[in-house]
Amino acid sequence: MKLYNIQQHSEQVTFTQALLQGLGKNQGLFFPADLPKFSIFEINSLLEMSFIERSTHILSTYIGSELSKNSILTCVKNAFNFPVPLVCINNNVAVLELFHGPTLAFKDFGSRLMAQMLNQTNHRFDKPMVILTATSGDTGAAVAHAFFNLSNIHVIILYPRGKISALQEKLFCTLGGNISTISVNGDFDSCQRLVKQAFDDNVLRQKLDLNSANSINIGRLLAQICYYFEGVSQLPHQMRNKLVIAVPSGNFGNLTAGLLAQSCGLPVKKFIAATNINDTVPRFLEYGYWEPRPTVSTFSNAMDVSSPNNWSRIEELFRRENKSIKELEYGCVNDSLTEKTVQEIADLGYLSEPHTAVAYRSLCDKLHSDEFGICLGTAHPVKFKELVEDFLKKKIQVILPVVLKERMKLPILSYEISKCFSSLRNLILRITS
C-alpha cells in the first residue's frame, strides 16, 4: 500500500511507515495513492460474509502484501471481538450501535486494530515509542485500553480540563503503567495544537519515536471503514439503494471512513455530516469560506472541535473522485435541540445520548419519505447517564458496565499543564526518561 502526504505529495510512504509515523511533513495527513473499487458482484459477496471475514478482505485489499492475510485476520479477530447491532427506532430510521467495545465508544474499533497492527509489524524501536494523542472525550479511553500494558510503547493522552464527562475521565485517567494522561487548561483544539507542535519539535523527535493514535493515523481510519459495510449488511436488500447515513462529526475521521467505504462501492445514497454548534464545516459548505471560531463546550462534548483534522482528507477524496464538496449534506444541532431530541427518541422507546441525538436530528431533517436512514450510535448512553437523566427528568435503568464500576472508585492520575508547549515538552521528556 502506498500513501502520499496531502500537504506534500512528494512524500510517499508504505502502510507500515504511515502506521508508525502518524503524520507527514508539515503536519500533513497520509492518503491512499490507490482507492480500491469493488464491483456490484463483489459488494454483494462481501455483504454476505461475516463481519470478521469481510473486514479482513477489505483491509487486505487496502494494505496489500505488507501484512499477510493471516496476520490481518489475527488483528481483526483480536480487535473486533464485540457485536455491532443495527437497531430500528421506527419504520425508516435505525441506529448502528458502535459502542459495545471495552470503552463503550466507536473509537474502540480503530484504536484496538491499530494496536494489534503495530504488534504485527515487528518494529524494533531504537528509541522509546510514544503514542501521543489528544482527545475530546472518547478517543482517550479507547487508545489507553487498546495499548495498556503493551511492551515498549508509552501512551500520552492530552484532554481539555473540565470539558469531558466524569465517566470518560475515569475510564482512561486511572490506568497508570504505560498510560500517562495530561489535563490541559484549554479546549480540545488547544490539545490538538500541542500534539501537532510536538510532532514538529526537533528535541522530541531526536529523543523519541513519536506516533499518534487518533484518527489522523491511517491504521485507525481503515478500521472504521469496516463497520459501515457491517451496517449495510444487516439491511434488507430493498433498502440498500435508498440508504442515507448521518454521522456525528467532530474531528471528521468517522465521516472520512464512511466516504471511503462509499468510494469502494458500498451502496450509500448520501452522507450527512452532523455537528453541534461548533459548525466550521456546515458554514464552509453553505458559504464557501473556512473560518474556525473559538470552540464552544456543548452536551455532545466529543464533537467540540472547531478545526477538524480529517477535513483535508475529505476534500482530497472529493478531488480524486471529481465530485463537488457541495454534494455533501450537513446538519447543525444546538444544545436545546439536542436535549429535545434525546427526549423524542426516548418516547420512541430507545435510549440515546447527545452525540447520537445530533446525528438522529440531522438525519430526520434531511430524510425523504422514500429513503431509509442510519444514524451512528457512537457512545453508550451510560457514559452520559446524569445528563440524560436531567434531559428526561427521571432516573434511567441502565446497568453500569463492570469496567466503569471498577474505574469510578479509582483516583485520577493526570498531570496538569497550561496550553504552553514548553510545559508539554518538559513533561513528556520527564515522563519518558
TrEMBL record:
One of its GO terms (molecular function) is threonine synthase activity. This is Threonine synthase. Keywords: Lyase, Pyridoxal phosphate. SUPFAM superfamilies: Tryptophan synthase beta subunit-like PLP-dependent enzymes. It comes from the Bacteria. Residues 8-80 form the Threonine synthase N-terminal domain. InterPro entries: Thr_synth_N, Thr_synth_N_sf, Thr_synthase-like, Threonine_Synthase, TrpB-like_PALP, TrpB-like_PALP_sf. Its cofactor is pyridoxal 5'-phosphate. Residues 96-367 form the Tryptophan synthase beta chain-like PALP domain. Belongs to the threonine synthase family. Its EC number is 4.2.3.1. NCBIfam families: thrC. Signal peptide: none annotated.
